[in-house]
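cache lookup: miss for this entity combination. No prior model stored, computing from scratch. Input as submitted by user K.M.:
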Amino acid sequence: MSDAMLEIEGLVRHFDGVHAVDDISFSVDRGKVLGFIGPNGAGKTTTMRILATLETPQHGDARIGGYSVISHPERVRSMTGFMPDYAGVYALTTVEEYLDFFARSYGLRGTARRAGVAGIIDFMGLGDVRHRYVESLSKGLKQRVALGRAIVHDPQLLILDEPAANLDPRARIEFRSLIRELAADGKTILLSSHILTELSEMCDTIAVIEKGRLLATGTVQEILEGLRPRRLLSLRLGGAADVVQRFLLEQPGVYRIHEVGGCVRFEFDGDDDGQVGLLARLVAAGYPVLEFTSQGANLEDAFIEITEGRATAVVEH
Amino acid sequence: MNDPLSRLDALSDRLSPVVVKEVRQFVRSREFVASFATSLLIALLIAFFGSMQALAGSRAAGQWTFTTLTACLALLGLAVVPLGAFTTLRTERLEQTLELISLTTMSPRRIVVGKLAAQAVKLVTFFAVMMPFIATSFLLGGVDFVTILTTMVTVFLLSLWVAAAALFASTMFRSRLLSGLAFGVIAVVIFIGYNASRMLFLAFRFGSPAAVFAGASASATGRWWAYAAMVVFCLVTMMNLVLLAESRLALPTENRASVLRLGFLVQFLLIVAWPLRWMFQSATFTTQSLQALTVFGGLHLALIAAFAVTEGLALPDPRVAPPSWLRRWKWLQPVFGPGGSRAALYVLLQMALFVAAGALLSATASEVRLLIALCGAICLFTGVPSLLVHRFSSRGLGALHARGMMLILLMLSLVLPDILYYIFWRPEVFSVQFSARHLFSPVIPLFNWDSVLTNRWELPPMMWAVVGILSYVRMMRVSAAGVREAEPLTTLRILPESDAGDTHSR
């Protein structure tokens, strides 16, 4: 039996002829974190809303814990926590009352409800503001409350739409650590964000979507390797850089040498052992090597290249 | 756990979460505090002036105090509370918090009922403020206990009904302007309804010719029956308002059409049952009952046909599960299942009941033919636009277009015979009196049935009726074809409940 917590098969959603989601399929295993990347209007939010049972697909289906979002929406809701990209707060309602209301709405009663709310307040670090009105909180605290609301019923799958948007760096770091803790607790998490460096730190896998179509899925490493199969190396010498270029050209697996700001950069088609060998040969040849570093491509480069069509290979997870 | 607050908290588990939240919110709101304090002050002043009158020797002091206090209570119940109900749900929609509640395991019905129950709590608070002063009016004399009790029950029920209507109005449109307009329209309708029900209530309590219409003629027992019937009808229509609001809030993955149809069927059965009560009475009563059946039954049928049949002939996604009762009794699906074509059978069955009830009450066959012509006209104005819209659905036509077309056809049928007559024949005398040209309209002859009978012009209205009924038959055939086409679509690999249950543990 598959260990997938979330399975999406051929999901299609059109709005007045616009393909918001166009034949998307992927799956996420239990306890994994998947980052959903795409420009504005790519179809991330629509996909997430379908998973949260707020929209229905015209074709295809999604199953959460084995339950279809179309035929068993009630069961899907009980095992899913959705945090949309808006705060959704009530006037004249304290943090504790707000969480208490959603705990009740998810069917928690008595001790389970009280313990659940207290646990969330403790976990989210909201103890100091529990008696303050939600509407009077800062954006960062409101986001924490919203995340608390999404997990108050202890869901197995968390769907977070732009959870770190509009947060200051400190709040963002705090939020990131909360997500990490939830993932460590065994929750399956699907989150979208524009801050790609954060996604690469938090997510086990990444799905890139544009114009409703899935362009790439896989681990961050797989995507980066699929995007740039050769290593990009940088070399800085004690003396003039131009003399080493002829030497490098003669080495096996070295391509596209160029000089940038006093450093020599080149692509190297080889593994770790090959890279060590190259460094050894440089030193043996008497070049005064000051720095020898690998310039890894980051997720932002990958995102730009994939969405602009320069990278076409789709990495299957 | 033994302190009163903990015990209250434990007790609150039995309440709807929406009630708990709403009560917490409204007791802190300025609007509630202001209306509470104002009503207390006004009640105090009224009781003071009433007492002054009584001390001056006035015998009508008690009645004056009671009437004035009831008017204040009615103002709170029929204006302040419904406005609060309207605002609370509209704010939830605008702030998108409603979406967050919809994501929980709470159904839209529980949400709407919770909102209504919260308004009931608010009403009880206002009643509690007024009650000691109303008791003063009883002590001042001039008004009996039964009058006070029935008035309070009536005002409370009417207020709750108006709050339900306000909740429904707030779900009708997303935009602030349109939902405000909807509230305005409903306010006007309620004002008219309030005056009508006030007249009926006064007739019930103090007796008048209107009491005959309400069925409160003969004895005290009869009047209590009439009052009970009014209360039941109020409760059933309130339930349908809740169901209507629920259907507006339901997510696309939920089928709410079936339960709505069931609710309106209950309402229709009440409308039919009440006139049938006079079946074995004198001719005067049966004639009045037939008139009541024709007006209220016809209005009910026209409204449900206009909304249910035009909802679109295409069957909804077969993967969306029907309610459990419909899964259990599958044979009810052709009537209660979603989709405009299934609604056609639902409406036709009610029409058959309507005509049968009319036949039991009527003295002549021509009266039955009027009922058939009325049903046929309803079928014509709802069935033909629905079929046309279905024919051109690939061009983006939908339920809204069908309803628009229905209204246009209705207006044209009312004015076109006269317009064409005056354009082509140019008579010297202007008159819109019923004549042969009006037989081209399916509606006008229904309002002039006596003239139709006198002139033996029954054939044209009956032909219109046949066309209308045939359009419904065509719709049912579309439904049958839709079911056959929909079957191969259900190819999703959905886990059986027994298997899926193992994977879900909370």
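stored under new cache key. The radius of gyration of chain B is 27 Å.
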